[in-house]
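Quick look at the format.
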Amino acid sequence: MPFLLNAAAELQCPHGGRVTLIPGQATVLAGGASVLRISDLEGAPIVGCPVVPTPTTAPCTLVALVSPGSWADTVLAAGEPVLLDTLIAVTDGVPPGPVIVVEAGQFQAQAEPG
């Protein structure tokens, strides 16, 4: 079973830029930190992407889209499904790249993907 992502998770763009995580709720915790929801991740800034802008490339600056298979329908935080380490998300870089889960932030709470 996949682990829930929390605010201590480490997420990166495919080039090593770090996703800045700012949870929008503080009530539901896993491993002592707020769990993450779709609305916490879509639009989250990415800092440190080393891609140099050219006519055909652009650095990753934010998480553009989170896709189905990334959350648990049965576990909610502030009315929204929580994200799992099965995360399927893409950046706004050119070309777009996958968001990589380096670490879930906790290894206690698990859930089935929705």
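Next, a different chain entirely:
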Amino acid sequence: MGLSIMEKMKTFYKAGLISIALVLFLIACTASTVTAENVSPVITETQITTNTSDQYYPAIYGDRIVWQDDRNGRFNSDIYMYDLSTKKETQITTSGSAEDPAIYGDKIVWQDSCNGKYDIYMYDLSTQKETQITTSGSAFGPDIYGDKIVWEDSRGSNSESHVVNIYMYDLSTKREIRISNSNSAGMCAIYGDRVVWKSDDKVYMYNLSTKKETQITDKPAVWPEIYGDRIVYSDSRNGNEDIYMYNISTSKEIQVTSNKSEQHYPVIYDDKIVWQDPRNGNYDIYMATLTWDEEPPLDDNNTDDSNGIDNETQVPDDCSSELTPLDRTQALKEYVECTYKCNVKTKTGLATLLDASMCHYENCDNKKAVSMLKSFIHLAEKMRVCKQISAEEADYMVKEARKIIDLIETH
């Protein structure tokens, strides 16, 4: 994907967001039924942009926030990026017609009418290369996760009907598919195997693995975005548009903003939610950071769209002994994220521990790298006891993690 291990970890570890308590929170077979959403979060708000022109449609991944910016003219918009760790702002596009960006790792996508019709484009920060993704001339509102890009597309519309559906393009297979069938879908977002969108002012979710569609809201809501088990959206139930957050696994909703101005277009990454806000007379980008007054209790909610363990999951063959600890850890992480199926919280917890181990190893802190791998082994073994993963899967993960530990300790 072009994203270095250190860049991946800037949000998760450097910002201090990883803890053993958080990993335990992700374990799905514990005794308590209370979750973090039952505890009121402390919300800290930060203004990101101060330019007197309008900034719209923010998106966030790790320490990077991107948005549409009109500083070069009201109808001459471009995409800008701000890095929270370096506090540096960068202009990404120069077409003057770039709108509605999204970001994942080193890849930024947006809609652009530079050729007279709207299509989806992508820019890779690592290669500094721009690529046109669609050619339909009717593609809007893209989002990206991994190799998958989703957008709303009005192909098939005419003067008598306005047909809009959600499409997805896989960068790895170069294959395009249609996701929705309502002909009135829009404002889509993707995280993992889940795609959310708005249809008839309600939020819906589709699972790419199970091919199951679920209605999320029963009140009018727009601009849905998803990260993990959390969906954020704008809702005007109180007279002005505020940001709300819904937890899929607990079915709990909280109100994030209560400013008397209108908060639009929320996006979420980990514990950060950003949106566009006109409270100062022009649109600026704001960010809310959610923290909890007390340590999140353990959670026993082990329901997930994956419908339990896939007993036919294939364990890969043993890797070459010539692989470095980083190579082995990355391969194990890809196995966790892409191959085996389990509760999404467990998957995230295992992958986060491997990310932390790689970050420590790159910083020459072998002791902490090994400690994270041992925590990974403990979690995998716990999942076997809870029957959340098969014995074969657990044995493979534990065996690979121990090989990595041996490699680190002998270097």
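Confidence is low (pLDDT under 50) at residues 1-37, 294-321.

See the schema section for token definitions.
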